[in-house]
């Protein structure tokens, strides 16, 4: 059985004091929560938030990391530095990394492999642009991003991979994919995993949906057979809204 997994991506928001306030409120709100939870603050707040969520049911995640272990990479943050901060999960291939910072599938795959080699859990984001959906290419784009993102990943390591389907046109726009449309892509991607890793792995892999998830649409999305959680952006910035998504139903 797959467990629901609700993750909050705080993006480039919040000072350390603001992040601490949000983290403390979430620890209180989610202490009896039944699902798996994660918060991914900015790098600058990881230590502060890490100290607050340590020993609770909320995991600490990072929003990105470098493709190299260490070295002359000005402005980057390494896997060793994340582990030093007790980060357990890293979000890779977010559409803002792909489309604003031009990260391609090869670079994302290098990061995925490095993170897994170091024992981290990876949330690998995939998703199509509006023009790709309108051209009938949503499935192909998600398939390519999945296959290339997972190149070289063993079946054993796949157990530490979570996929997040995030149609780019739904991120931060207030537009949500209908539960049916999202579920159809999730089912398609699950088939891709079956082809690559077999039926057992396909039935176990958690696939989150992301794109304007809010308290009033979370339950309908989560009710779908292939939707196993959410990656939440805007609505993760307030404890009340994130908690009500996290405790849907
Ligand atoms: C995201 O950036 O991962 C995201 C899903 O954002 P939002 O919830 O704001 O659409």
CATH superfamily: Aldolase class I
Number of strands: 8
Question: Tally the helices: what do you get?
Answer: 12
> How many domains make up the coordinates?
1
Output the strand order for the largest sheet: 1-2-3-4-5-6-7-8
Order of SSEs, N→C? EHEHEHEHHEHHHEHHEHEH
* Strand residue content: 15-25%
The level 1 CATH classification is Alpha Beta
Helical percentage: 40-55%
Rg over CA atoms, rounded to whole Å, is: 17 Å
Low-confidence stretches: none
CATH fold field value = TIM Barrel
Distance between the termini: 18 Å
- CATH architect. name: Alpha-Beta Barrel
Shape type: globular
Ligands, ions, cofactors = phosphoenolpyruvate
Counting helices, strands and paired strands, the structural category is alpha/beta
Mean pLDDT: 97
Instruction: Please summarize the sheet with the most strands.
Output: 8 strands, parallel, barrel
């Amino acid at each position: 059985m797959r467990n629901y997994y609700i993750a909050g991506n705080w993006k480039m928001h919040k000072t350390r004091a603001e992040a601490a306030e949000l983290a403390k409120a979430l620890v209180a709100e989610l202490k009896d929560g039944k699902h798996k939870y994660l918060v991914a603050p900015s790098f600058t707040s990881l230590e502060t938030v890490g100290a607050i969520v340590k020993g609770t049911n909320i995991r600490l995640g990072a929003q990105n990391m470098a493709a190299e272990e260490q070295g002359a990479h000005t402005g980057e943050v390494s896997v060793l530095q994340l582990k030093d901060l007790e980060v357990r999960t890293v979000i890779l291939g977010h559409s803002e990394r792909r489309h604003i910072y031009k990260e391609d599938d090869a670079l994302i795959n290098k990061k995925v492999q490095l993170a897994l080699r170091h024992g981290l859990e990876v949330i690998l984001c995939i998703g199509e642009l509006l023009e790709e959906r309108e051209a009938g290419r949503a499935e192909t784009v998600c398939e390519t991003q999945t296959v290339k993102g997972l190149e070289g990943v063993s079946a054993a390591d796949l157990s530490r991979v979570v996929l997040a389907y995030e149609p780019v046109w739904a991120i931060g726009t207030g537009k949500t994919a209908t539960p049916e449309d999202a579920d159809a892509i999730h089912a398609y991607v699950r088939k891709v995993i079956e082809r690559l890793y077999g039926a057992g792995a396909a039935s176990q892999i958690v696939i989150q949906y992301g794109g304007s998830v809010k308290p009033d649409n979370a339950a309908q999305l989560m009710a779908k057979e292939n939707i196993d959680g959410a990656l939440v952006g805007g609505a993760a910035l307030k404890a009340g809204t994130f908690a009500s998504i996290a405790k849907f139903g």
